[in-house]
Amino acid sequence: MSMRTRDGSTFSRLFRALRVGVFFAISPLYLTATILAVLVTKDVRRWYPVAKAWAAHSLWWFKIDVECIDGSRIEPGRDYVLLCNHRSHFDIFSLFVSLPHTYARFVAKRELTKVPIFGYGLKVSGQILVDRTDHSQAVAELRKHLGESGVSVVFFAEGQRSDDARLMPFKKGGAAFAIEAGLPVVPVAISGSEAVLEKHSLMVAPGTIRVRIGSPIETSGLVAEDRDSLTGRARDEVERMLDQLEAAPIQTSAESPTGYSRGAKAHV
């Protein structure tokens, strides 16, 4: 009987399964450390360094490179609204290592709070939890975070992960929030994460995730009625950047100049 399968050798698949098992065994420890960092220090921002370490170590463990292009467009000390596409759970890890000098909160669906430990961590760490079936609740929750300084807000603007890597329509909430908060919108394209972890799968494969940062779009002077055009402009830019990323060859490296992932690289 052949020891090979369509996805590689039997040994390779078993080794990947072992890696996933270790990841799920270790992750609750990181989640607990994240929660304790906030509860002990009474500083909601203390979750962020622990989460960055979890991201970096997980990427290293799974042999996933992250290549960030034009990361210098995010200026340290300035707040933004990031509108990103979404293909995989590893999108979040890739953003942590691509923006090491940025403190951010993520907009997430409220039903994730039902996940043991992880859900409590979301609440304790101050993530923006919205009910996708209740527009009024979502708007009210977002407005609680208006006026905060030193915080960038990350929206996965499609509202869910894409099934086939094609870019879906963007929701308008991110643009509306950016206009009301007076913050610039930054389109962010993430490519390759769907190959390291497919939707509805637990099998993680080595690979490279590429993150491209778009030019900030200023919102000063815009009003609520401009949210449609702003949403469209950000989506068009993400689509353009995805086309560029997927037309160019991936360059991997054994170096780790940022110290955040195996082969992590930044291009300005």
Task: Please supply descriptive tags for the structure shown above.
single chain; 268 residues; alpha/beta; Glycerol-3-phosphate (1)-acyltransferase; 8-stranded mixed sheet; two-stranded antiparallel ribbon; 8 helices; 10 strands; disordered N terminus
Describe this structure in words.
It contains eight helices and ten strands. It has helices at residues 10-41, 47-61, 90-98, 118-124, 135-143, 173-181, 193-196, 227-247; strands spanning 4-5, 8-9, 64-69, 81-84, 104-109, 128-130, 152-156, 185-191, 207-213, 265-267. The chain has an eight-stranded mixed beta sheet with strand order 6-5-7-4-8-9-3-10, with helices on both faces. Strands 1-2 form a two-stranded antiparallel sheet. β5 (104-109), α4 and β6 (128-130) form a beta-alpha-beta unit. The termini are far apart. Mean pLDDT is 88; it is low at 1-6 and 252-263.
Given as residue ranges, the uncertain stretches (5+ residues, pLDDT < 50) are 1-6, 252-263
Number of distinct helices: 8
Helix % is: 25-40%
Measured distance between first and last alpha carbons: 51 Å
- Write the H/E string, N to C: EEHHEEHEHEHEHEHEHE
Which CATH C-level class is it? Answer: Alpha Beta
| CA gyration radius, whole angstroms | 19 Å
Compute the number of strand runs.
10
> What structural class is derived from the secondary structure elements?
alpha/beta
| Main β sheet profile | 8 strands, mixed
